[in-house]
Amino acid sequence: ASIAAVIPAAGRGRRMQSATPKQFLVVHGKTLLQHSVDAVLRDPRVEHVFIASDEQNEQAVAKSLPNISFVAGGVTRAESVLSGVLHAITQGYTHVVVHDAARPGLPAAVLSAVIDAALSGDNGAIVAMPVRDSLKRSEPDSDMISTSVSREHLWQAQTPQVFTAALLADAISEMGVEHPQLTDEASAMAYLGYHPRLVMGSLKNIKVTHPEDLELVTAILAPPGR
Ligand code: CTP
Ligand code: MG
């Protein structure tokens, strides 16, 4: 296998409400994007990183190394991912590790485990966490509980999500980059009938989404010895 990472980094960060898109915010001297790039390169099997970004903001990645390329971002996350995956295929990579720019705290052991799980077949593997809170359903435009939902066997998907590059490109193209249910790579693979494996994630791997997440990720990314 020859493995590339694809990092979707073309979002606007609407929920974050900051002037700068969240992936370009600086924590402990590096952008969140740079933290995420460094995180995926901690597994030596990852040979190259394709960053899908509208900004083409190479400034955001301080050490612009030969193993990092910027490619065009898309209107949807799926379109950004597909852009990176197609570039990876063109450059001869057989597998892709898709990882959100907004998840800078990815532990190295989690990355290695999901790559291990994905390399043993065509189904691929994703990082996920068992749901820990009780789940409630409401009706549209209501704050009243209509039903409680069992959390048994329910997982919250994170990234990385690791697949054979050609299969993932087919899956995203078939499902369509505008499909409302195409919120992660596993959804596209499932659309083609594959059953990706679940690999235990980490609370440190939070997706920076709302302003208060910045406080959490600042603690998570704190350099050791402080
Ligand atoms: N992303 C992307 N291209 C898009 C939309 C999102 O590459 N058109 C990326 C984001 O940059 C982020 C990751 O996908 O790294 C996860 O998406 P999300 O957390 O939803 O980020 P945003 O879409 O930027 O945030 P929001 O949904 O609040 O606007
Ligand atoms: Mg979004």
Automatic annotation (TrEMBL):
It is an enzyme of class 2 (transferase). Keywords: Isoprene biosynthesis, Nucleotidyltransferase, Transferase. Pathway: Isoprenoid biosynthesis; isopentenyl diphosphate biosynthesis via DXP pathway; isopentenyl diphosphate from 1-deoxy-D-xylulose 5-phosphate: step 2/6. One of its GO terms (biological process) is isopentenyl diphosphate biosynthetic process, methylerythritol 4-phosphate pathway. It catalyses: 2-C-methyl-D-erythritol 4-phosphate + CTP + H(+) = 4-CDP-2-C-methyl-D-erythritol + diphosphate. The record marks R15, K22 as: Transition state stabilizer. Its EC number is 2.7.7.60. InterPro entries: IspD (IPR001228), IspD/TarI (IPR034683), IspD/TarI_cytidylyltransf_bact (IPR050088), ISPD_synthase_CS (IPR018294), Nucleotide-diphossugar_trans (IPR029044). One of its GO terms (molecular function) is 2-C-methyl-D-erythritol 4-phosphate cytidylyltransferase activity. Pfam families: IspD (PF01128). The record marks R151, K207 as: Positions MEP for the nucleophilic attack. Gene3D superfamilies: Spore Coat Polysaccharide Biosynthesis Protein SpsA, Chain A. Catalyzes the formation of 4-diphosphocytidyl-2-C-methyl-D-erythritol from CTP and 2-C-methyl-D-erythritol 4-phosphate (MEP). Belongs to the IspD/TarI cytidylyltransferase family. IspD subfamily. NCBIfam families: ispD. PANTHER family: 2-C-METHYL-D-ERYTHRITOL 4-PHOSPHATE CYTIDYLYLTRANSFERASE, CHLOROPLASTIC. This is 2-C-methyl-D-erythritol 4-phosphate cytidylyltransferase. It comes from Idiomarina aquatica. The lineage of its organism: Bacteria, Pseudomonadati, Pseudomonadota, Gammaproteobacteria, Alteromonadales.
